[in-house]
Amino acid sequence: MPTRTAAQRREEARRRYDAYVATCPSRQLLDALSDKWVSLVLTALARGSLRYSELARTIAGVSQKMLTQTLRTMERDGLVSRTVTPSVPVRVDYRLTPLGENLMPLMEAIKNWAEIHMEDVEAAREAYDRRPAAAP
Amino acid sequence: MPTRTAAQRREEARRRYDAYVATCPSRQLLDALSDKWVSLVLTALARGSLRYSELARTIAGVSQKMLTQTLRTMERDGLVSRTVTPSVPVRVDYRLTPLGENLMPLMEAIKNWAEIHMEDVEAAREAYDRRPAAAP
DNA sequence: CGGCATCCCACATGATACTG
DNA sequence: CAGTATCATGTGGGATGCCG
Question: Which InterPro entries match (chains A, B) (predicted)?
């Protein structure tokens, strides 16, 4: 049972944290969330837990090193949980924590936006690149 | 007048673009949106246009180089527009395009999430760092 | 004021090889 | 299978200086 309502908590957070301030922890958290791989890992786990190798296959092009590193950071930040089954060979499953499930829809929205508006962005780029340069 | 409804368009985009595929343009767009500065610029312009120097002051800690570079990329991608007033000294204003206004709330949600859940993340980090290491 | 050009380096990331 | 360790490298990003 929380001692604060969601609205109260939101207000307190706004007073305490401001991502526009370079030294604010929330700014560093925003930087961490603005990672190339975090959004993909988060959305990949949307429908339940996945094994390490399943994650690697889902997120094409990610290196072992970056996947492991991203998962470790996300685990430390409380976004994913890691479960080791000591079989032979060992089996490791990752799933979203409640905190990760809370963030996931926001990241999914960004990912969907990128897919849905890709054509608009490509059109904007072509228009920009067609602009005449200033005359000498 | 669009020839497709929003729902139709969404379905087409899902068929055509998949950010999980490394070579898909939408993956590269997602990478671009997952930039350290894009979310801050986008939300800074939420309430209207700002001059270059106002942006620089709002987003503490950003260097001239990175701010300019971020704004150029966002301009090319059709997210912001740039207006030069040829006074002396010159005045340059940036504002969100309709496309940028469409994306902004999603980025603002991420930024707010970081501010609101900072305490949860810090608690998770402390718990993680307190974990006992495996015995030798 | 609002840039762009240049230099430079730390660090993030990729590739490869090895292991419990 | 799921990593860790090591080495190589590309580039993000800061500092500085000049310009319209």
Answer: ArsR-like_HTH (IPR011991), HTH_ArsR_DNA-bd_dom (IPR001845), HTH_HxlR (IPR002577), WH-like_DNA-bd_sf (IPR036388), WH_DNA-bd_sf (IPR036390)
